[in-house]
Please model this.
Amino acid sequence: MLWGEFKSETQAGLGHDQDRERYGAYIDKQIRLAALDLQRWVDEYRKGHSVRYTALNITPKGNAGVVTLPSGFQPEHVFLRPERSFATTGPTGSNSYASADGVDDKLLNVDLTGLPSDDMVWFEMRYRTQGEPGEYFRVNRGGPGPSSHGYLGTEGKWETVDSLWQVSHGLDNLSLGWVDSSDEFTAGDVEWITVHDAVFEPGTGYVRGNLLARYEFDEKSTGSLDGVEVIESTGNGPDGAHIGGTAGNDSNRKITVPFPVDLQQGDAVEVTIKIWIRGKKGEVVWISTDQGDTTSTTIAADNTWEYHEVTLNVASPDDCESIHLGYDSTTKVYSTIDWSELTIESGTFYEFIHFGEDEIESLYATKKLERYPWGRRSELVTGDLCRNAPGFYAYNSKYLWAHKLDQAALDAGATLRIEGHGRKLDFEDDDETPFDELATNAAALYVKYKLLKHIDKLNDGWKVQADYENERSNIIADFNAR
Model:
């Protein structure tokens, strides 16, 4: 449980007392003192503390970074992540795509007159060019004042492109890989296209509105697509047909993680997924299992790391169950998102660095540092070390020095995580703690009796103090019985 969560749940346990705005600082202090008292009496609450440091609280010193340890905290394991690591998920179609040969293929010829539209729409396409370097992949849109658009990409690399189109009189039709005015064909692969309504927001400009249509290519192996129906998965727009073109398989670009072992119960379980994600504003981020359990969250701002917490209800997990990030296994819709720092309900911690065609190649980018003599900590600064290892740290009761954690590493987003034990006195909201629901219940009683005795001057404070001490004794007995 994070310290911020511990505080919030303790405050919720105060009932009406949490509304005493005048005594907010006093209540915060008593919550910290309650944690201190619980650590004094309960051994398990002195174990499993974790503190994370970033460039905001790391001081570079040559090749080393220096941090201030929380009072009463004893480091056990130190982990250095050289930079913010992440993996990218992205759609490559419903396990298929269609190819235009640049000779006579129109990948899609679809009538769009049925789509409701104002003056502007957002067009988005997942594609890769296969022509000569510098050759554009062409998209033609018909209707009053037809026009074509050319998209330049890196040959053989999947990319997603979007355009704001003015379509005052609606879209009559749409073709991929072909230009009407010159009857020019271009080579490339397309996985899907989407059309969103464009909504004007003062001070921001046009943003994506409702999804009007999403066209996906049917799941086929290689072979002609001449006249084959193309899927419109939203139910809002008309279906279309391929005119020429060839389907080809491609690997799913999704990140798959094993289902936590302690949640493989056979019965329905609720999984809490906490994750940092980055992408386009409005992008729906899908999370699902093999058997079709699905949930989602939505990106709030463009290209900004955001913390999201979602719940996934899993009907009946088994030993082979997996959780797919960025993929809806029911509708086969993908999300183009960067992911980092995933925590699943069991406490399993994944740090993404890169991924293969189907799964993550490595879950852990973090280096575990070895302890170095405190009296030789200056060698961490100069880099003249007496032995080799992925990295080193040295500490005393107040400071910890870590190598290599210089200014360049901090600029790249390096972070330091320290796991340890002790009767910890100081906390930040994102510190990991060993506290649980039992601790928050006890802490709420502690704060209540302090308010009654020292603020309200009521004798009921003695009774609530006894309730707290009984609750604390029950916690000790509970841990001893495990």
Observations:
- The chain has three domains: 3-83+369-382+391-480, 96-249, 253-362.
